[in-house]
Specification:
The protein is α/β, with parallel strands linked by helices and 107 residues long. It contains five helices and four strands; from the N terminus they run E-H-H-E-H-E-H-E-H. It has a two-stranded parallel ribbon with strand order 1-2. A two-stranded parallel sheet has the order 3-4. The longest helix is centred in the N-terminal third of the chain and has 9 residues.
């Protein structure tokens, strides 16, 4: 679904330490997730070390340095430990798109 929204699909890989801090222990460790994403035929590029909290500064880096047009995430909530939306800044800028998480799981 994400690949269909643009020409190039860049996937941000969040490190284990960030996932533990915000959600608890990951199901797959960082190396396993990298191997998995690296083998998805629709993925053109992977950015590692992506923070779970997409701060305004990091969002600007994505848009300028990595030339990303939109940040895309499934329709499942992505909340920080304080309950705020991790994608709030990208949404405020109008540069966030959502794909159906449920439909992907059912395929």
């Amino acid at each position: 679904q994400s690949k269909a929204l643009g020409d190039v699909l860049v996937v941000g890989l969040i490190p284990d330490s960030e996932i533990k801090r915000c959600k608890g222990p990951p199901v797959l460790n960082e190396d396993e997730r990298l191997l998995l994403v690296d083998n998805v035929k629709w993925v053109d590029e992977i950015i590692t070390g992506v923070p779970y909290d997409l701060s305004p500064q990091f969002v600007e880096e994505l848009f300028s340095k990595h030339r990303i047009d939109y940040i895309i995430h499934g329709d499942d909530p992505c909340l920080l430990p304080d309950g705020t939306d991790a994608y709030a800044h990208a949404k405020k800028l109008g540069r966030f798109k959502m794909v159906s998480f449920t439909a992907v799981l059912l395929l």
